[in-house]
Amino acid sequence: MSAPRGQFSSRFGFIMAAAGSAVGLGNIWGFPTQTASNGGAAFVLVYLVLAFVLAYPALMAELVIGRHARANIVTALGGLSDKPLLSRLGRFTGLYGVLTASLILSFYTIVAGWMICYLAASVTDMTGMDDATHWLTSMSVERNLIASFLFAGLTLFIISSGVQDGIEKWSSRLMPMLVGLLVLLIVYVLTQPGAMEGLRVYLMPDMSRVLEPKLIISAMGQAFFSLSLGVGTMLVYGSYLSKEESLPRMGAIVTVVDVGIAFIAGLLILPAMFVAKEAGINITDAAGNLIGDSDIIFQVLPPLFDSMGGAGDFVALAFFALMTIAALTSSISMLEVPVSLAVERFQIRRPLAALAIGGSIFAISTLIIFNFGSLFGFVIDLTTKYSQPLLGVAICLYCGWIFKRNQLLEELKQGHDNLEQGVFWKIWPFYVKVICPLLILFTFWQSLA
Predict the structure, then answer these.
(1) What 3-state class would DSSP assign to 284?
(2) Which of 160, 176, 225, 304 has its CA 20 to 30 A from that of 253?
């Protein structure tokens, strides 16, 4: 028999876990570089508006379904309708969400392994172990396998410990550490030559670009997908939330924390890039645009740390510790999606479920490592570009059209007695039924085009 179903023991624990799920590697480097290539502060302004006007309602759809069902994503979506066809479709959507979360974790484990390698390299560099540093920072099958195995083991250990003793405990420790490291790094970087130029790019808006279609579409995509929407992580975390908590309030806090950390990350990455420019390091591509994605982490920042002298070793150590923590808080939420299904529907003990599923996902990571050129980009596109948006649409439609309105209201009123008279209830149901699905589909279509 499986153990009794877990639940977050505190509001703080849920907020840290949900925010940790949302705040991943993409937030730390993806949001700042999108900002730089889309009008600087103009992008930030549009992103902030869309995060609360559009992404927050979609987040609420997952939270309310999860807490109502008190179950994994397959059971939760399958149980929203008593009509056989809709119930089967809900279960299929849930299973596809489980598969998507697992595939995301398979490539995420590899990238997180790189962060562990660079974290270790900052130590070997300080101690003069040049051969070890070279091995840790050079791409190889052996390095990727070992580092991915270590990261997968960390994720598996936390998930196998349960909701309170695993997810909640470690999220409550890791997230404050993440914010603390971010703040310390920002304070240091802003004292370096060139930092103010990066700060101006980040904070001084070119208001003429605010209404550019490309900027709005990019900001919309970032707002939706920075909150881990579409694969069931927030749905599962919502299922562990107490009935005494106000869902609209909890969703708003998670959104604020996620957006806030993304914004704070921009205060680090953009100034750091221009500090690198001041040090003679190239920060633009062939077209003259700022270098984006992982190139910042592995091509721009390591030479910057080297140029800082003795202090650079400690800055590198803090930075890659930050990146490893960001990766871990996201990975535990992704592994929880399939593990919760195995524990609840198949009555498998949590440690055994975590080991079996975590091991299977690591096997996929191994397959990707041995076929890196053909599989790595393919799996990323399949999951984040195609599957995640469509799953987000499905969850919004199930919440808006299949979830019975009176049951939805009763669920939301738990922990929020006067909700029916508030602005949220007057606006949100229409948003989740019509606006969110249409805008996610529009963003999806534009990304394909």
Answers:
(1) strand
(2) 160
Q: 59, 225 in Cβ contact below 8 A?
A: no
Residue 117 contacts residue 136 (beta carbons within 8 Å) = yes
Q: How far apart are CA 392 and CA 413, in angstroms?
A: 24
Q: Is 90 exceeded by the pLDDT of residue 226?
A: no
- Residues 301, 318 contacting (CB under 8 angstroms): no
Q: What is the pLDDT confidence band of residue 293, given thresholds at 50, 70 and 90?
A: low
**One-letter amino acid of 218:** S
Tell me how far apart the alpha carbons of residues 82 and 125 are, in angstroms, rounded to a whole number: 61
Residues 6+ apart with CB under 8 A from 391: 93, 96, 97, 100, 230, 231, 232
| Whole-number Cα distances in Å, 258 to 31, 118, 318 | 11, 25, 21
For the ranges 24-28, 68-72, 203-207, the maximum mean pLDDT occurs at: 68-72
Amino acid sitting at position 203: L
416-440: pLDDT as tens digits: 888 988 899 999 999 999 999 998 8
DSSP letters of 40-63?
A: THHHHHHHHHHIIIIIHHHHHHHH
Q: Which tokens hold the place of 34?
A: 């999108």
Helices 310-345/84-126 angle, 10° precision: 150
Q: Domain ranges in the chain?
A: 11-36+54-107+145-207+222-270+319-448
Is residue 321 within 8 Å of 123, Cβ to Cβ?
Answer: no
Tens of pLDDT along 135-154?
Answer: 999 999 999 999 999 999 99
Residue 275 contacts residue 194 (beta carbons within 8 Å)? yes
> How far is CA 333 from its chain centroid?
9
352-362, pLDDT tens digit by residue? Answer: 999 999 999 99
243 contacts: CB under 8 Å, gap ≥ 6: 67, 414, 415
**Nearest-angstrom CA–CA distance, 195 and 178:** 21
Q: Which of 321, 249, 328 is nearest to 15 (CA)?
A: 249
Residue 205, classed as helix, strand or coil, is coil
Contact 104, 112 (CB under 8 A): no
CB atoms within 10 A of CB 246: 18
Question: Could you tell me if 365 and 398 are in contact, meaning their C-beta atoms sit under 8 angstroms apart?
Answer: no
Distance of alpha carbon 42 from alpha carbon 211, whole angstroms: 9
